C-alpha cells in the first residue's frame, strides 16, 4: 500500500497484519479522491475509524491542512504513528487513541472532509453523521466519504446530508454525502 498522489505520492504505507482492519486498496483510494477532489485547497479532515491512517494521509498529501485520526486498536495506532512519521509533517496530524463514540464528545472544530469506514457500517455511519451535524462539526461545504461492504444500503438522506455519488469497487461501496 502507498500514498497514491500529492506531496507524499508514491511513498509506502504500513498496514496492520490480520483481520482487525480492512485497508482501502490503492485503486479504491485513488477512485475515492477522484470522486471528491482530487486535490484540495486546505481544510480539516476527520478519519473516524482510521485503521492504518491511509485515507487521512492521502487527504493531507492532496492539500488538506490538518487531519484528526481516531483509532481504538493499539496495534493500528502504532501503524498510524509510523505512517505519520513517514510524512515528515507530524504537526499536520492528531491521533485520538479512543473509540469513535468517545472521540465525538472531544471534537470542537468543524471539518471539511469526513472519512467513515466503520466495522458495522450502516448503524455507525447514520448515528455518527447525525451526531456530527447536531454538534455543528461539519462545515457547510463538507464532503462525507463512507466506505462499506457493497451489500450495505445507506439512506439517501442523513439529517441534512444527501447522497450525491455512489460506486461499487469489487467488495467495497463508496458513498459520498454533501449538504
From TrEMBL:
Ranges annotated as spanning the membrane: none
NCBIfam families: 16S rRNA (guanine(966)-N(2))-methyltransferase RsmD
E.C. number(s) listed in UniProt: 2.1.1.171
Keywords linked to the UniProt accession: Methyltransferase, Transferase
Listed Gene3D superfamilies: Vaccinia Virus protein VP39
Organism field: Lactococcus allomyrinae
KW Transferase (keyword) present: yes
PANTHER family in the cross-refs: METHYLTRANSFERASE
Identification of the protein by name: 16S rRNA (Guanine(966)-N(2))-methyltransferase RsmD
Gene label: rsmD
Top-rank taxon: Bacteria
Pfam families named in the record: Cons_hypoth95
Entries under PROSITE patterns matching the protein: N6_MTASE (PS00092)
Example of a GO MF term: nucleic acid binding
UniProt key word Transport: no
Amino acid at each position: 500500500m502507498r500514498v497514491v498522489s500529492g506531496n507524499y505520492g508514491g511513498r509506502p504505507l504500513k498496514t496492520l497484519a490480520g483481520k482487525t482492519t480492512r485497508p482501502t486498496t490503492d485503486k479504491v483510494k485513488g477512485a475515492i479522491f477522484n470522486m471528491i477532489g482530487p486535490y484540495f485547497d486546505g481544510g480539516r479532515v476527520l478519519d473516524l475509524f482510521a485503521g492504518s491512517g491511509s485515507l487521512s494521509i492521502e487527504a493531507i498529501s492532496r492539500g488538506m491542512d490538518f487531519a484528526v485520526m481516531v483509532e481504538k486498536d493499539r496495534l493500528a495506532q502504532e501503524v498510524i504513528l509510523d505512517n505519520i512519521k513517514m510524512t515528515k509533517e507530524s504537526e499536520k496530524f492528531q491521533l485520538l487513541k479512543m473509540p469513535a463514540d468517545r472521540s465525538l464528545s472531544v471534537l470542537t472544530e468543524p471539518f471539511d472532509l469526513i472519512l467513515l469506514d466503520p466495522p458495522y457500517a450502516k448503524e455507525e455511519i447514520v448515528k455518527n453523521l447525525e451526531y456530527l451535524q447536531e454538534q455543528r462539526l461539519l462545515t457547510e461545504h463538507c464532503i462525507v466519504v463512507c466506505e462499506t461492504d457493497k451489500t450495505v444500503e445507506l439512506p439517501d438522506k442523513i439529517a441534512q446530508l444527501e447522497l450525491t455519488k455512489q460506486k461499487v469497487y469489487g467488495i467495497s461501496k463508496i458513498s459520498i454525502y454533501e449538504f
